[in-house]
Design a protein that fits this description.
289 residues; alpha+beta; Glutaredoxin; 3 domains; 14 helices; 4 strands; globular
Length: 289
C-alpha cells in the first residue's frame, strides 16, 4: 500500500469511529475483498493497466449498491485511482487491516511518513467545504511559522528526543480552542510521525495541499516588516503574471531579511531582500580579492 493511501485509510478510520460506522465499513470492504478474490472478471478489470482508473472507480462504486456509505466509496475509489493496478487487491486488503485492527500503533509499518500525513489530510479535505479548507490552510501556515521561529519547538515536533504522544499533547496545548477541529486533527497526525522529519516542511506541504484543493497555488511571502494589504495584492498580481497561476498569498515577517521581500512559489524563489543583495555583494568582493 502506498504511504499516501495508508494515511488516507487512517483518516477514513478516524472519521468512521467518530460517526460510529467503522463496523459497517469493515463489512463493506470485506465483501469487496471476497468479490475480488472470487471473481476473475473483477480482478482482471482492477489489475488491468489498460483500464482507466476512472472506469475502475465507477465499477467499485457500483458494487456497493444504490445507496452506498460515502466513506466506503471514498476510500475504495482512492485506492483504485492511486495504486499501481497489480497492487490494487493487496491495497484493499491492507486498508481492511487498517480499519479492523484495534490499536494502529501495533500495525506493521507504524512509522508515519510525510506522504502518509498528506494522504490523511487529503481524506479530511475531501469532506470539508471551501471555507473549512481556507481556514485550515491559514491556521496551518501560522502554526508552521510558529514552529519555524522556535528551534526547540521545531526539533520537538520533528521527532528529535520526543515520543509521538508527547508531540500530540504539545500540538493540543498550542492549538486547542485556537483552531478548527480539522486543523487540530491534521496537525496532531503530522506531529505523530515516528521517524524524524522536519515538521515545518510537512506543514508547508499541507498548506499547499489545502490550497490546491481550492484550485489555488500558495505563495509564501516573507518581508522584513509587515506588508499592507495593498502591497501584498500588488506583489500577487505581479507574480501571477510571471508564474501563470492563481496565487494564494501567505505572508510572514522575517527581520533577518533587513529590508525587501522574498516570495516562494513552489520551487521558484523570488528574492528581493537586502540580505540577498548583501550576500551577492560579498560574493563579488570575494571574487575580486
Amino acid at each position: 500500500m502506498m504511504e499516501s493511501v495508508r494515511g488516507y485509510s487512517e483518516a477514513i478510520r478516524t472519521v468512521a469511529e467518530e460517526r460510529g460506522v467503522r463496523s459497517s465499513i469493515v463489512a463493506a470492504i470485506s465483501r469487496l475483498k471476497r468479490a475480488i478474490d472470487t471473481s476473475k472478471d473483477l480482478r482482471e478489470v482492477l489489475t488491468d493497466p489498460s483500464v482507466p482508473p476512472k472506469i475502475k472507480a465507477e465499477v467499485v462504486a457500483d458494487l456497493f449498491g444504490p445507496n452506498p456509505d460515502r466513506l466506503t466509496v471514498q476510500l475504495v475509489q482512492t485506492i483504485v485511482m492511486s495504486e499501481s493496478p497489480k497492487y490494487i487487491p493487496d491495497a484493499v486488503n491492507d486498508a481492511l487491516e487498517v480499519l479492523e485492527i484495534d490499536d494502529l500503533s501495533t500495525y506493521v509499518g507504524a512509522d508515519s511518513t510525510k506522504a502518509r500525513a498528506l494522504g490523511f489530510a487529503s481524506a479530511l479535505f475531501a469532506m470539508g467545504d471551501a471555507q473549512d479548507l481556507e481556514r485550515c490552510e491559514d491556521e496551518l501556515f501560522k502554526f508552521a511559522r510558529l514552529a519555524e521561529s522556535s528551534g526547540p519547538l521545531r526539533r520537538a515536533l520533528s521527532g528529535m528526543g520526543t515520543h509521538p504522544r508527547q508531540r500530540i499533547e504539545i500540538v493540543g496545548d498550542l492549538l486547542a480552542n485556537r483552531s478548527s477541529r480539522l486543523t487540530l486533527d491534521i496537525a496532531k497526525y503530522a506531529s505523530s510521525i515516528s521517524v524524524i522529519r522536519d515538521i515545518v516542511e510537512i506543514l508547508d506541504d499541507l498548506v499547499a495541499l489545502a490550497a490546491s484543493e481550492r484550485d489555488r497555488f500558495v505563495c509564501q511571502l516573507r518581508s522584513a516588516t509587515p506588508l499592507t494589504a495593498e502591497q501584498i495584492e500588488r506583489i500577487r498580481q505581479t507574480l501571477q503574471e510571471r508564474v501563470g497561476r492563481t496565487l494564494e498569498m501567505r505572508s510572514a515577517t522575517d527581520p533577518s531579511l533587513i529590508a525587501g521581500v522574498v516570495a516562494v512559489v513552489g520551487d521558484e524563489i523570488f528574492d528581493g531582500s537586502a540580505r540577498h543583495r548583501i550576500d551577492q555583494l560579498r560574493v563579488r568582493l570575494s571574487a575580486k580579492n
